[in-house]
Amino acid sequence: VQLQASGGGLVQAGGSLRLSCAASGRTFRISNYIMGWFRQAPGKEREFVGTIRWSGDRSYYADSAKGRFTIFRDNAKGTVYLQMNSLKPEDTAAYYCAAARYWSGGYYSAGLYDYWGQGTQVTVSS
Hints:
By secondary structure, this protein is mainly β. The protein contains no helices and eleven strands. The chain has strands at 2-6, 9-12, 17-24, 34-40, 47-52, 59-61, 69-74, 79-84, 93-100, 115-116, 120-125. Strands 2, 4, 5, 6, 9, 10 and 11 form a seven-stranded mixed β-sheet that branches. A four-stranded antiparallel β-sheet has the order 1-3-8-7, with no helix packed on it. The chain is globular, with a radius of gyration of 13 Å. The protein starts with a strand and ends with a strand.
């Protein structure tokens, strides 16, 4: 199983970026997984950004992402997206996508997730 995150880059504060996470693997079906996004800034712990349930009917976000970030998924394409608007310098981090087989009230915990992508860097300049 591989999760490939892409779409990161350098953007000015107030700008937007859309990250993608493409899943591959002979038996891996993204529709069977809850998909989350996390981020990690230098010197800081990895933190939850948001997650989306299998069918995309519900998504949940960290307070820092609410109202600015949106997660959506296209199971037919095997891809999950993180649309980030109104970016701030404090959003600068490496962003990781992750897949979890089972839902839990601890959806914000990295320990719930079974597979991780390699990360894509987002840098927001002031």
